[in-house]
Amino acid sequence: MISARSHSKTIALYLVAIIALSTSAPIIRWSEGPPLTMGFWRLLLASTGLFCFVRRENLKNILQKNLLFWSALTGFLFFLHLWTFFKSAQTTATSHCMLLFATNPIWTAILSALIHKDRPNLRFWLAFLFAFSGILILFFTQNSSAAVTLQGDFLALLTAVLFSFYLLTAHKIRRHLDNFTFTACVYLFTALSFGAVLLFSSEPWLPPTQKSWLGVAGTIIFPTFLGHAIFTALISRMKLYHMSMGKLAEPLIASFFAWLIFSESVATSTWFAFAFTITGLFILFSQKIESVEPE
Predict the structure, then answer these.
(1) With CB atoms counted within 10 Å of each terminal CB, which end of the chain scores lower, N or C?
(2) What is the phi-psi region of residue 147: left when phi exceeds 0, alpha when psi lies from -120 to 50, beta otherwise?
(3) Is 87 within 8 Å of 158 (Cβ atoms)?
């Protein structure tokens, strides 16, 4: 077990990351920018900024320890996760996309048990039951006229599995690299993946409006730096399947940001869903988290 002070600090950073990650969809919606274009510039500029803080000897470690391949693979998995999630949201109902992606903690737990021999305890599954119930409440109470397709549902499930694999490869690299070097390299490979797809799309290479550029800046600061970067910084402190549990709170937190930004009404069922999810997270983290191998 870690100390009470360290536990509180870790959970506080974790909550900041989850809240910041929840701003992604509202910011992208507000900016009205082309998704591939925004994804490319978001990750390219974020990577460029992070490289300013990377030490030269840390870059040498990537080549000496054969981490270049794993960095490229992690960046590509991150891109596939983002791309399949966007495609799923385009081709199936939001409720289906949200429900199937919420299975991510299950896949992370299964892969952790198979690869790391780390099996979740009963507390984890009880917490997941409460948190997932919140998603189910949203699923059954959401009124949507969007068409449901098998392709879109499959992509939603695939993006959940891809995020689990992303966490596993990120965990492998973070044991050897500091977070600045890790995120700079991974975001660069993610940006290159976006750029490769952008070559064959009809989207423009540059964000077309000032509003879309502001959207790029917003996604760099909030979901990228305060979200994903803090998230991966905590990989050395938390179990992967514990970290993935927070993803279940993102749709609910995003709905509150939509209320603040777009004046969207928040249904009573959303409050009930939020209560169930928060209860699940409280059950999981009310006990001190177990220490993970140091960086």
Answers:
(1) N
(2) beta
(3) no
Residue keyed to tokens 């964000």: 207
Q: What is the pLDDT of residues 247-265, one digit of tens each?
A: 888 877 877 887 888 777 7
Q: Specify the amino acid at residue 89.
A: A
Q: Is the pLDDT of residue 222 over 50?
A: yes
State the angle between helix axes of 94-101 and 68-91 in degrees (0 to 180), rounded to the nearest 10: 150
- 154-209 pLDDT, tens digit per residue, is 988 999 999 999 999 999 999 889 999 999 999 999 999 999 999 999 999 999 99
* Residue 216 to residue 45: CA distance in whole angstroms: 9
Q: How confident is the model at residue 292 (pLDDT cuts 50, 70, 90)?
A: low
Q: What does the chain come to in residues?
A: 295
Q: 89: burial class by Cβ within 10 Å (0-12, 13-18, 19+)? A: buried
| CB distance 220 to 58 below 8 Å | no
Give the Å distances, CA to CA, from 10 to 127, 230, 283.
18, 10, 16
Backbone angles phi, psi at 252, to 5 degrees: -70, -45
With CA atoms as reference, report the closest residue to 249 among 92, 19, 48.
19
> What is the mean predicted confidence (pLDDT) over 85-102?
77
- Give yes or no for residue 287 having a pLDDT over 90: no
Two structure tokens written together for 136: 């189910």
- Compute the chain's Rg from CA coordinates: 19
**pTM for the full model?**
0.87
Q: Tell which residue, 178, 171, 139, 148, has the closest CA to residue 238.
A: 171
